[in-house]
């Protein structure tokens, strides 16, 4: 009897051991920490984006409201195959046209022509192509007060698909975009802030610079923060009109390691630096050309390119290509210029910078 009980006991022990070896362990339970620490998103590899600005037609009797130079520019940008493209304002002639042009007051028609011209980059009809982000310039605003039919036409056409994550009242005008290891802040300079136009929404900028940060941060506006030309006709539409607010804006970029401030308004290309932040003007997408004289550059800037005087007739249309190198924390800039004699694209300024 005792032998039988001993055999039964051994059999049970062996059975439990076998079952324990063949039964699958339960799947681990995943829980979210009560106070998870956000991580900084990063990308990998190399990728490109393109910036350009200012394409009103220089012809006062324009039949489109858009410079014909934008057509080859758009084709060349599309051929670069960037991940995204960003346009820094003054799409069309807007409110500046007189009765000499059949497009005067036809704001929707002007924006439709602009969208047609940039179709090689982004097809507004079916939403295909390269993502294209735009902000307004003074040509999309007004001489003193905002021309509301112009603003409404802009929001309903070129800006209809822009992000709505900006501050209240500035939806589709001021917003941010993230892509891989980069963050882009696009600022409307012509909504009044504290009663002043030619400014940025500083509280929103401060929030964006300290939340969801990325290794690369690029800030955009239409006008330079520091003057690079002496253009009396356009000076009143620049954010350096309000220098106290401009200085606060610039300091926020310095303090938060912004890689570069990118803008247009001045119809040329100029790269400079102040307190470690680059200001790069790329406003030569077909608007009337202006001369460049280094003597007119704000002394707060250290001029990097060009370093010589350029006559109005020697200016060229173009755009700027950035290649971001996520693994090394650097980015390259290549300015592209259209040679008017050969019709070929040539390289102008080139530079390499580290993320700050």
Gap from first CA to last CA: 84 Å
Annotated CATH topology? Purple Acid Phosphatase, chain A, domain 2
Largest sheet: 7 strands, mixed
SSE order, as H and E?
A: HEHEHEEEHEEHEHEEEEEEE
Residue-averaged pLDDT, rounded?
89
* Alpha carbon gyration radius: 27 Å
Beta content comes to 15-25%
Please identify the structural class as seen in this structure.
alpha/beta
Commentary on this structure:
The protein has 356 residues and is of the alpha/beta class. The chain has one domain (41-354): 4-Layer Sandwich (Purple Acid Phosphatase, chain A, domain 2). Helices cover 21% and strands 22% of the residues. It is built from 6 helices and 15 strands. It has a 7-stranded mixed β-sheet with strand order 6-7-8-9-11-10-12, with helices on one face. A 6-stranded mixed β-sheet has the order 5-2-1-13-14-15, covered by helices on one side. The longest helix is centred in the first third of the chain and has 21 residues, at 2-22. Mean pLDDT is 89; it is low at 1-40.
């Amino acid at each position: 009897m005792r032998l039988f009980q001993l055999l039964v006991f051994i059999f049970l022990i062996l059975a439990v051991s076998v079952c324990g070896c063949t039964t699958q362990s339960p799947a681990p339970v995943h829980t979210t920490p009560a106070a998870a620490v956000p991580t900084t998103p990063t990308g990998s590899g190399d990728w490109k984006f393109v910036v350009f600005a200012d394409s009103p037609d220089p012809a006062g009797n324009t039949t489109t409201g858009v410079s014909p130079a934008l057509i080859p520019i758009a084709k060349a940008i599309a051929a670069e195959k960037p991940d995204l493209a960003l346009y820094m304002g003054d799409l069309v002639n807007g409110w500046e046209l007189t009765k000499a042009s059949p497009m005067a007051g036809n704001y929707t028609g002007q924006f439709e022509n602009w969208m047609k011209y940039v179709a090689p980059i982004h097809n507004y009809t079916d939403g295909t192509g390269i993502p294209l982000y735009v902000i307004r310039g003074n040509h999309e605003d007004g001489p003193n007060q905002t021309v509301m039919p112009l603003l409404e036409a802009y929001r309903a056409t070129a800006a209809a698909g822009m992000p709505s994550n900006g501050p209240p009242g500035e939806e589709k005008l001021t917003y941010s975009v993230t892509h891989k290891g980069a963050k882009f802040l696009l600022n409307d300079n012509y909504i009044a802030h504290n009663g002043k136009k030619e400014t940025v929404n500083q509280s929103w900028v401060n929030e964006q610079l300290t939340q969801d940060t990325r290794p690369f941060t690029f800030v955009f506006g239409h006008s330079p923060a520091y003057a690079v030309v002496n253009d009396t006709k356009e000076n009143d539409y620049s954010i350096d009109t309000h220098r106290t607010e401009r200085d606060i804006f610039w300091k926020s970029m310095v303090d938060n390691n912004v890689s570069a401030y990118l803008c247009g308004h001045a119809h040329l290309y100029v790269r400079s630096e102040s307190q470690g932040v680059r200001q790069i003007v790329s406003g030569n997408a077909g608007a009337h050309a202006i001369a460049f004289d280094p003597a007119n550059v704000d002394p707060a800037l250290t001029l990097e390119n060009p370093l010589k005087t350029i006559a109005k007739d020697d200016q060229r249309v173009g755009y700027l290509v950035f290649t971001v190198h996520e693994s090394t924390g650097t980015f390259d800039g290549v300015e592209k210029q259209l040679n008017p004699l050969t019709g070929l694209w040539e390289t102008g300024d080139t530079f390499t910078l580290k993320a700050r």
